[in-house]
Design goal:
Elements (H helix, E strand, L loop, with lengths): L8 E6 L2 H9 L8 E4 L8 E4 L1 H5 L8 H7 L4 E4 L2 H16 L6 E4 L2 E5 L3 H4 L1 H15 L6 E6 L2 H8 L7 E3 L22 H9 L5 H5 L3 H8 L2 H10 L13 E7 L7 H21 L3 E11 L4 E11 L2 H18 L6 E12 L18 H18 L34
Parallel strand pairs: 2-4, 7-8
Antiparallel strand pairs: 1-6, 1-7, 2-3, 5-6, 9-12, 10-11, 10-12
Helix pairs in contact: 10-11, 12-13
């Protein structure tokens, strides 16, 4: 851990990304408030909305029907993850033309580490990146750019003047610019953590700044408090690399797919998508879990463990066994609200120790299926779409099964097969 004495990080956080991409693509809606939702339904929740919609009182998570009552001229677009991912990839390429991207944090957030003359000329570099994005990506996809001595403070700076802001937090000016922020404006401080800070006598940013590292660790109850303190004071904190632990997908159900006999089709497709990602990254899984959300807010979860494998048939058979068990144990519900599948206990092929007791009881032909999976994946990749798939060709509401954009994960082109 060391304390930089100058700007070292440039952080770009795009404003209302999905909504602004829609405005960039369709000039006819640029002068209107725009919201983006996952499903074409008046009961679907808004994923995001543009700043014009926010000014009218629209908030993320609001139902479309309620949003229209507040703002009758609201334009609704159904999310198009493949379009957003394509724009994201073009954005990363454009930023790389100016300075290397160190890390992609999410589909609308990237960070660049600055070295040498880039540190002294950070603000000019930020303006050049902004101009390049406007010229080559689109003027309506606006970035807010933050500069700081570390990634944490650069991210905080990017949030301070949205939309289309440019804020630099110089180490020698701290804590001055931070003192006007609320505690929960900082990444890592949720509403519950804010209450804990208040209970410990920390009421504002000055109070947090004046705590000691040990006090922060005691309030958090773990090392994260000390890490946040260090980052807040400008230190560059190295974190251990996270390891891949699971592959999973979920889906909120709508229409006919809420019925149990259709929900299983959706769950099977999500299982296949998770298995494909598992194989692409060269892992095997030794466990599968599913979760069912019922209409009455009840939730059921179950898990199956087995010898490590990677073929669709084994995973599907275990999934179906768990699914029917879940229906029995929840009284055979008439409708489901959502399904989730997760492949875990993962390992590389060379890390697996086989024994005489590892026979695949649900798929005795596992070796042949493994070879078939390799052929099938190769054909799909060659054609750029799912020309072969285990089971029926199901199209679930909202589409993009297995390719939904999640925090911290940007789908790859193969996820859209």
């Amino acid at each position: 851990m060391h304390k930089p004495d100058r700007i070292r990080s440039l952080y770009i956080d795009f404003d209302a990304f999905f909504a602004n991409v829609e405005k960039q693509i369709d000039p006819a809606i640029r002068d209107y408030p725009v919201g983006v939702t996952a499903l074409d339904s008046e009961f679907s929740a808004l994923i995001t909305c543009c700043y014009m919609a926010k000014a009218a009182g629209i908030k993320r998570g609001m139902r479309v029907r309620d949003a229209r009552e507040i703002c009758p001229d609201l334009i609704i677009r159904v999310a198009r993850p493949d379009v957003y991912v394509d724009i994201h990839n073009r954005i990363v390429a454009e930023v790389n033309n100016h300075v290397p991207v160190r890390k992609v944090w999410s589909i609308d957030e990237v960070e660049c580490a600055l070295i040498g003359h880039e540190c002294e000329g950070a603000e000019q570099l930020a303006r050049e990146i902004r101009a390049g994005l406007a010229a080559n990506i689109g003027a309506h996809i606006t970035p807010s750019i933050g500069l700081g001595p570390n990634q944490f403070l650069a991210k905080v700076a990017a949030e301070m003047q949205k939309p289309a802001g440019l804020v630099a937090l110089h180490p020698d000016a701290l804590p001055g610019p931070l003192l006007g922020l609320d505690l929960d404006d900082l990444p890592g401080i949720s509403g519950n953590m804010k209450h804990r800070l208040n209970a410990a006598g920390v009421q504002d940013m000055r109070g947090l700044w004046n705590t000691s590292p040990k006090q922060a660790r005691a309030i958090w109850g773990n090392v994260e408090g000390e890490r946040l303190w260090a980052q807040l004071h400008g230190y560059a904190v190295a974190r251990p690399e996270t390891k891949r632990r699971m592959f999973g997908h979920s889906r909120v159900l709508s229409g006919d797919f809420r019925h149990p006999d259709k929900a299983i089709d959706c769950l099977q497709l999500l299982t296949i998508k998770a298995a494909y990602r598992l194989r692409r990254e060269d892992y095997n899984a030794g466990a599968l879990s599913i979760s069912l959300r019922l209409a009455d807010r009840q939730r059921w979860s179950g898990e199956a463990r087995f010898a490590h494998c990677r073929d669709d048939l084994t995973f599907i058979r275990h999934m179906k066994t768990l699914y029917h068990k879940g229906l029995r144990e929840t009284g055979h519900p008439a409708l489901l609200k959502g399904v989730h599948v997760m492949l875990h206990n993962i390992a590389r092929p060379e890390e697996i120790n086989r024994t005489l007791f590892d026979a695949n009881t649900v798929n005795p032909c596992e070796a042949q299926w493994d070879r078939l999976m390799g052929v099938m994946d190769g054909l799909n990749e060659r054609h750029g779409k799912a020309v072969l798939r285990v089971g029926g060709n199901v199209t679930v509401p909202g589409g993009y099964a297995g390719a939904k954009i999640a925090f911290g994960r940007v789908p790859e082109k193969e996820d859209f097969f």
